[in-house]
Structure formats: C-alpha cells, structure tokens
Amino acid sequence: QVQLVESGGGLVQAGGSLRLSCTASGRTFSSVAMGWFRQFPGKEREFVAAIGWSGTYYADSVKGRFTISRDNAKNTVYLQMNSLKPEDTAVYYCAARPDYGNGYGYANEYNHWGQGTQVTVSS
Question: What φ, ψ does residue 72 adopt, rounded to 5°?
Fold first, then answer.
C-alpha cells in the first residue's frame, strides 16, 4: 500500500511560483510512476504532469511553465510551478501507479492518491 502526503500549496500572485511536494511511503518508490492532477470546482480531475521510466509528460496547458521531478532517495516527487496564472487555481493531487511505460495521463490508471493541496493564484 502506497501512502502519499502532499505539501507546498498556498496563495500566490499571478506570475509567481510554487513548488509542490509529494512524499510516498509503503513500497519501493522508484518502481512506480508518479503523476500530478488538478481539480477545478465541479469538474473532473485533469492531468497536469507525470514521471515514469519512459520520461516526463505534461498537459499542454502547463508545458513550459511546470516541471515534474523526483528524488528516489527521499521518496518524493515535486511539481515546480512557474509563471502561475489565475486559471491554475485548483486542488492539486499527486498519484501513484505501477509503471507500465504508458498511459500516464489517465486518472483511472492511478490507484493511490494524496489528500490534495489547494493552489490559489490571485490576479
């Protein structure tokens, strides 16, 4: 069983930066794919970024602004968010799944989720 704990959300002005962290426990971290998703009020969770053995992947809406990385020694995945926009305001979730090398963008492929952290970007 993988347990995920997110941190780093908060309030930031447009154009600013935040770094989200997600620390995992419970199994070999390096063997799982990690993803970040976000959820707007009343909407389904949408893919933001993922990292697996085949590389890193980003939603078009965040490409060039967000960077996902991982530190396997710390069992932690990060999401560095730069040039934030008010439309990035959402609850951000990290997620874990077995790494098959594909399908990273699909929320239903992930079987472990964190509790979510609020990111609010003011204009």
Answer: -65, -30
